[in-house]
Design brief:
Blueprint (H helix, E strand, L loop, with lengths): L3 H16 L4 H8 L3 H9 L23 H11 L9 H10 L7 H10 L29 E10 L6 E9 L5 E7 L4 H15 L8 E5 L8 H10 L1 E5 L9 H11 L4 H7 L2
Parallel strand pairs: 1-4, 4-5
Antiparallel strand pairs: 1-2, 2-3
Helix pairs in contact: 1-2, 5-6, 7-8
Length: 268
């Protein structure tokens, strides 16, 4: 939409170019309009009143919703059974009852006009999650990662459980244990034995132990032991499979060895 002042400037430049020998069509193309647009401006007072579209009277369509119909839609959408539902569910439920008030888009427009299209219902609106915590190791005994995995036994259907703590900076296996069952007490004992062996309790800075969101690693017993040792727990982000990649990579190597415990003992 070109304003009245811009129209006068554009027509003046076109007339100047045309007086200098330029063709009208080419001058209009450079200005960004067509010859038909220029002719319409001159023939219908387009250079006097400007564009009449902003102030044009637009009659209400004959099929538009009346005030009573809008109030009815708003009342139905705020009924207790529909208070937490979007229009995509309200309209089909009313249709099952043999009632038709308006389409889904009409429901949406009415609710939007009354500020009810954001979060409807008693549940709290979702909040923006905080950025993930990042830990950087610049030396040994600063950042550990740990996990638990299954080791196959010679009996079908039986497994051994490998608990392992790895130093992220040096890739040293700080501690590991193999048990015949999964128990949070085993994980707590491994953390305690490894922390005391590595002298974590005498360090001034707080050690970080990163793991996944498994139930064993987040058990109350393990958290109490970490608090007693002064170790800060850290956990992987939801649905991010490579947050604990160093331990997972070592687990894959260990499972392809005939005797995984010998490999783990050699990495210590």
């Amino acid at each position: 939409m070109i304003g009245l002042e811009d129209r006068h400037t554009m027509v003046r430049h076109i007339e100047t170019a045309q007086a200098g020998g330029a063709r009208l069509r080419q001058a209009c193309e450079v200005a960004g309009i067509t010859v038909r647009t220029l002719q319409r401006w001159k023939a219908h007072d387009g250079l006097v009143v400007g564009d009449p579209r902003p102030g044009a009277e637009r009659p209400t369509p004959a099929h538009a919703l009346t005030i009573e119909e809008r109030e009815r839609i708003l009342a139905v959408a705020n009924e207790p059974r529909f208070a937490d539902m979007p229009p995509a569910r309200i309209v089909p439920m009313l249709a099952d009852e043999g009632v038709y008030l308006a389409s889904e888009s009409s429901f949406g427009r009415v609710l939007r006009a009354h500020g009810q299209t954001r979060h409807r219902g008693r549940a709290k609106a979702p909040r923006q999650s905080r950025p993930p915590t990042t830990h950087v190791a610049t030396g040994p005994r600063q950042l550990w990662c740990w996990d638990m995995t299954y080791l196959p036994a010679e009996v079908a259907g039986r497994w051994f459980y490998l608990y392992l703590i790895l130093d992220v900076y040096s890739r040293k296996i700080a501690g590991f244990e193999v048990h015949d069952r999964d128990d949070a007490n085993h994980a707590a004992h491994l953390v305690k034995r490894t922390a005391l062996a590595e002298g974590i309790h005498a360090m001034a800075t707080k050690q970080v132990l990163h793991g996944d969101n498994g139930a064993t690693l987040k058990a109350t017993t393990v958290l109490a032991m970490l608090h007693w040792l002064g170790v800060k727990p850290s956990y992987s982000r939801p649905r991010v499979s490579d947050d604990n990649a160093f331990v997972e990579s070592l687990f894959r190597t260990a499972k392809y060895q005939p005797n995984p415990t010998l490999l783990l003992a050699g990495r210590r």
